[in-house]
Design a protein that fits this description.
By secondary structure, the chain is mainly α. Helices cover about 60% and strands about 5% of the residues. The protein has a domain at about 40-170. α1 (about 40-65) runs antiparallel to α2 (about 75-110) and α1 runs antiparallel to α4 (about 145-170).
Length: about 190
């Protein structure tokens, strides 16, 4: 049989191609490489939270607890204001460490809610820290732009893999390999 078939119903010849029953499978969805080269979004969430969420926050917490900020000035009123500001930042940072641990567990378990918790708390932490600190130090620090720029840069670096992870999980690009896809049939309980 030829690839073309002729149909002659009303006396005119119309040529139709035969239908090819070959099924073309869609290309599998590919995971996004965070920062263009590193690893997938799940591994990036774990790495970012491990470094910035835990290690960096622990280093900052140690710095805050040593009260080195008291050496910045001899003014007792400013020292008191710095102490109150840094007490708040210590609590925010300690909660950030706990949230980072929860987010790492969530990423390891492919849990979108726990990873979104990390993204949310990152926005809260990196918004509150300058809001608390800048009014106290604004008259005494000449490089104040750093206190505005740092939370934006770190916030973007932390949020990027979290947002990609949540997007890929929602779209089915990234999935837990330990869970079988749900089979739609009548015998769900078997």
């Amino acid at each position: 049989m030829s690839a073309l078939a002729a149909n002659d119903h009303d006396g005119s010849s119309i040529i139709h191609p035969l239908i090819n029953p070959t099924v073309i499978e869609a290309e599998p969805k590919r995971e996004h490489l965070c920062f263009g080269c590193c690893c997938n979004s799940r591994e990036s969430v774990i790495a970012v939270q491990g470094f910035l969420g835990i290690l960096w926050n622990i280093a900052m917490l140690i710095g805050y607890l040593t009260e080195s900020y008291k050496n910045w000035t001899a003014d007792p009123q400013l020292r008191l204001e710095l102490e109150h500001a840094y007490q708040k930042i210590i609590y925010i940072t300690a909660v950030g460490i706990a949230v980072a641990i929860i987010v790492i567990i969530g990423a390891k378990r492919y849990n979108v809610f726990l990873v979104s918790l990390g993204a949310t708390y990152t926005m809260i932490q990196y918004t509150l820290e300058p809001i608390i600190l800048i009014p106290v130090i604004s008259d005494h620090v000449s490089y104040l732009f750093f206190y505005y720029l740092w939370p934006i840069v770190v916030g973007i670096l932390v949020l990027y893999p979290h947002i990609v992870f949540m997007y890929e999980m929602k779209k089915g690009i990234l999935a837990n390999p330990n869970i079988n896809p749900r089979v739609e049939d009548d015998n769900v309980f078997l």
